[in-house]
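User: tokens in, sequence out, please.
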């Protein structure tokens, strides 16, 4: 599965541009769109934003944090290496310019009936694995069945409504759905990474491995230094190199990921020229951390690339499985102890916007109070949802940025008192058990400590003992998989067309499933119902309405203390690359960049000059 498409889905099935409608009502097309026409017709040459004449060659080095011990990213075991999606093709490829569209890759065409109860992918005859064997319907069926039975628990949830896969004719695979209510399922299946049945027949799919698996994508694994680096080389005779979805992309001959202990070490390595491109998520580092001879001489370029991507939710997340976080009022109270305005002013140079929706920076975000169809949906759950859902706009606590949040702490203490907690001496204790409130904030990035420590100081003023614990990436991932944390910095990505993935985020069925993304332990029938409504939305208008309703219920559940977001991508890179004049609407596509040979040669000379 391509790294850029892993598990965060954008999905669909309406009659798009350039389709042929058969007499039996089956739509046959080169692509799929959730609620409208595809941007590109059946004869399109390439995505508009790419340079179709971009030169091939050169290398790019990226960084990764922590370590890895497996080259199989499809199971729960082990820590998978970075970049593994580069070597495996999928049935279809999403468009970074459209909110919910995909075009054929391994599948040449796709067929969907009017009732949407199945989807059929017609495979290209020229599609093959790196060993020269063809990609067949048997490979597609085996991959689907294996991921669902032996793969990461995510797949069982993701494919839950796909009943079976079967071969139809010589080159086609049909997937049958539980019903036609889930418009996403056609392209959810289209994201399927296709693996070789013959290759895995003699290997244990469920075990970790450092043997490069047989792939079909634009790159092959060339070298592996376990836990330290992984190198991919472009396949010179890649079967899909000239397809419209790939033209102008996959331009580097070599892609390498080097692993670093933490972000601080990684930044210093970048400034020393150890790797080439870096996406920066820390405002202070972006403002001051790159200063040095290379930046001042123009050897390092810093750019901010605007995007219209849904922000998703980064936050301090509560593990509601813990007794002391089970009460909504406690979670709300703790949110008043986080002073974002002071943090933004003093630590982020005022760079960020406070996140106030799980779908911020988009039309999907709830605002004001619910009206119209959204209100009608929510009124059905009156008495089952917080009253504020129907009467108030959600906004996280604010301050004047001075650091004095006494008023907010008074509100917090009142909420804690209502929930059965009282201050005795200098400790907040439970009125029934007499136990003090104490919890751990789990981190895997030391850089976050400077943000968490002022939060902890404010909690202390409420009598709450909070401790920060920073662990290595492997330990962090294992603890998150087993829900072994009190509070942690969590992230929930969002697509332009949310759907089936919401079940894994918030669905009751995944709350106790090890390895699921329901990290917070959400178990709420109303949330389950609203997710079902989102999944079954019949058009864009109803999708937006239903997502907003879900957003409100999640926000007023106080499952998180929202952090912040940015509407640009901050990228620093050594000056040997060129890139398309325009970036796609929904994010940066580094695979459309290329090495400029003249710049690369000049860079080496300039590096030597600066070093002197």
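Assistant: Sequence out:
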């Amino acid at each position: 599965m391509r790294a850029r498409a892993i598990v965060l889905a954008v999905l669909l099935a309406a009659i798009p541009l350039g389709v042929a409608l058969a007499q039996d009502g089956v739509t046959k097309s080169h692509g799929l769109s959730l609620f409208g026409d595809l941007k590109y017709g059946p004869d399109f040459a390439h995505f508009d934003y790419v340079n179709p004449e971009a030169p091939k060659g050169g290398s790019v080095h990226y960084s990764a944090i922590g370590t890895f011990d497996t080259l199989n990213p499809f199971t729960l075991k082990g820590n998978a290496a970075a970049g593994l999606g580069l070597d495996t093709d999928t049935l279809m490829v999403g468009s970074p310019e459209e909110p919910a569209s995909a075009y054929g890759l391994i599948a040449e065409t796709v067929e969907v009936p009017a009732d949407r109860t199945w989807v059929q992918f017609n495979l290209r005859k020229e599609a093959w694995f790196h060993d020269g064997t063809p990609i067949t319907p048997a490979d597609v069926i085996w991959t689907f069945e294996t991921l669902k039975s032996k793969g990461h628990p995510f797949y069982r949830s993701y494919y839950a409504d796909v009943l079976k896969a079967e071969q139809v004719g010589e080159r086609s695979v049909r997937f049958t759905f539980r019903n036609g209510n889930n418009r996403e399922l056609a392209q959810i299946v289209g994201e399927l990474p296709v693996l070789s049945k013959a290759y895995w027949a003699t290997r244990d799919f469920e075990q970790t491995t450092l043997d490069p698996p047989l792939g079909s994508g634009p790159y092959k694994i060339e070298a592996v230094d376990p836990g330290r680096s992984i190198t991919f080389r472009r396949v010179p005779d890649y079967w899909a190199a000239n397809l419209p979805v790939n033209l102008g992309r996959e331009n580097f001959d070599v892609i390498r990921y080097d692993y670093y202990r933490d972000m601080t070490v990684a930044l210093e390595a970048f400034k020393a020229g150890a790797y080439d491109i870096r996406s920066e998520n820390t405002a202070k580092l972006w403002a001051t951390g790159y200063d040095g001879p290379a930046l001042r001489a123009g050897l390092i370029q810093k750019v901010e690339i605007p995007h219209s991507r849904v922000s998703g939710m980064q936050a301090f997340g509560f593990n509601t499985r813990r007794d002391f976080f089970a009460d909504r009022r406690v979670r709300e109270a703790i949110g008043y102890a986080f002073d974002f305005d002071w943090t933004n002013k003093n630590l982020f140079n005022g760079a960020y916007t406070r996140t106030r929706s799980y779908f911020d920076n988009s039309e999907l975000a709830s605002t004001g109070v619910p009206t119209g169809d959204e209100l009608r949906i929510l009124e059905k759950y009156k008495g089952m949802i917080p009253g504020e859902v129907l009467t108030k706009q959600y906004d996280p606590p604010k301050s004047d940025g001075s650091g004095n949040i006494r008023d907010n702490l008074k509100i917090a203490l009142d909420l804690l008192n209502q929930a059965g907690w009282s201050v005795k001496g200098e400790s907040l204790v439970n009125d029934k058990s007499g136990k003090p409130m104490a919890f751990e904030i789990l981190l895997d990035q030391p850089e976050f400590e400077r943000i968490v420590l002022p939060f902890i100081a404010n909690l202390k003023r409420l009598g709450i003992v909070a401790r920060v614990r920073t662990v290595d990436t492997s330990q962090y991932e294992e603890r998150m998989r087993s829900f072994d944390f009190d509070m942690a910095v969590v992230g929930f990505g969002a697509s332009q067309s949310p759907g089936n993935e919401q079940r894994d985020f918030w669905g009751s069925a995944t709350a106790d499933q090890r390895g699921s993304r329901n990290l917070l332990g959400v178990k709420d029938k109303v949330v389950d119902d609203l997710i079902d409504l989102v999944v079954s939305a019949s058009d864009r208008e109803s999708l937006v309405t239903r997502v907003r309703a879900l957003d409100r219920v999640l926000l007023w559940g106080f499952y998180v203390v929202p952090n912040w977001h940015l509407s640009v991508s901050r990228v620093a890179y050594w000056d040997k690359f060129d890139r398309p004049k325009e970036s796609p609407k929904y994010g940066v596509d580094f695979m459309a960049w290329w090495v400029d040979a003249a710049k690369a040669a000049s860079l080496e000379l300039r590096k030597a000059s600066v070093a002197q």
